[in-house]
Design a protein that fits this description.
The chain is an all-alpha fold. 67% of the residues lie in helices and 0% in strands.
Length: 118
Amino acid sequence: MKDDTRENSRPRNFFRYALLCFTAFLVLSLGFALIPREAPAPAVPPFSEQARASALAETMRLRAAGHELAEGASGAQRQLFSRTVTLLTTQARALVLPAENGPDGDVCADDGRHARPP
């Protein structure tokens, strides 16, 4: 009679082991699926964006220099420098992205001033 009990208990133990292995596999797979991935490195901006940003920085630098020259000049030179500043301001507005515009729609310079013609 003892032999009959051993044979009957064996399939039940096998079922328990299989259920335990399946549960462990399910917990591990859900754990790996729910772990957040590392954030990808930010993409390098395309060459066109780098060139645009470089041109904008150079335009703002030239505009500031022209504005200083216009303040120190008088007469015809002042008018000439003012036209140059206006041209550089127009160029800066063309180079700036819509998100970079100031609250009143003007281009913001690096120091927080707005690029308006004098």
